[in-house]
């Protein structure tokens, strides 16, 4: 579906793109008309931070925090919704103790955890018992699979992820591991969430869509923007569709990549990766000045 990136909403030097859909245009217009009742929600990896081979080295785009700090005081809230632990996203994003970011929250582990910039407090539940069982069995499964070379396991506390990006053939390793990891997850009451060369084993019922809807309703927001890049962001896209049907206008933004095209087909606006997302956030902040 995409967007008309050469069309603009204003005459400023760095204008907003025009959404390609009527629903997207309605969502952007509602955000601009009543920004104090708008929620701006964003994925982290691939959206605010470029994808890198080692997730531990992922960091927010250099201009992300300045753009967020410029925009946050003008909207009801900015929510970073991520599968990572909230504290990891806070560290990698550089979100702590930043003037102007009091209205930012990080909903980690797909909303199971919450970190509030205004207070620096973190709330987190006990991990699902299946995660510990999977963590113990995973090394043996990877060894038996014959696809372990170059794979890397990320322990997220409430979930475990297996990355194949550094394997000799990342897609082949991803495909070979999907079925055995799905079986392992099912035996312990978990599910597998596929992403960009990563398979994450996590409890059911944890997804960005549920987190987004709950947060938007908690603030009685009048509009919502969500930006994402990966398959795990599709539930948030669906949540925006549901919110629209319930009468809350929304804007769907795709942080475009060649690895995942599904979001591009659903988005109202496509931008060029994290740099494009940051430019959009900065343009919003300027428009609302």
Characterize this entry briefly:
This protein is an alpha/beta fold and 289 residues long. Helix content is 37%, strand content 22%.
Structure overview:
The protein has 289 residues and is α/β, with parallel strands linked by helices. Helix content is 37%, strand content 22%. It contains nine helices and 14 strands. The chain has helices at 22-33, 64-71, 86-93, 129-145, 170-187, 208-218, 234-245, 262-266, 273-287; strands at residues 3-8, 17-19, 38-42, 77-81, 104-108, 113-116, 122-123, 152-155, 160-163, 191-195, 198-202, 223-228, 250-255, 269-271. The strands form three sheets. The chain has an eight-stranded mixed sheet, sandwiched between helices. Strands 8-9-11-10 form a four-stranded antiparallel sheet. A two-stranded antiparallel sheet has the order 1-2. Helix 7 links the parallel strand 12 and strand 13 (250-255). The longest helix has 18 residues, at 170-187. Residues 3-9 have low confidence and may be disordered.
- The helix tally amounts to 9
Strand line-up in the sheet with most strands: 7-6-5-4-3-12-13-14
Low-pLDDT stretches = 3-9
What string, H for helix and E for strand, traces the elements in order?
Answer: EEHEHEHEEEHEEHEEHEHEHEH
Output the radius of gyration: 19 Å
* SS content category: alpha/beta
Write the layout of secondary structure elements.
Elements lengths: L2 E6 L8 E3 L2 H12 L4 E5 L21 H8 L5 E5 L4 H8 L10 E5 L4 E4 L5 E2 L5 H17 L6 E4 L4 E4 L6 H18 L3 E5 L2 E5 L5 H11 L4 E6 L5 H12 L4 E6 L6 H5 L2 E3 L1 H15 L2
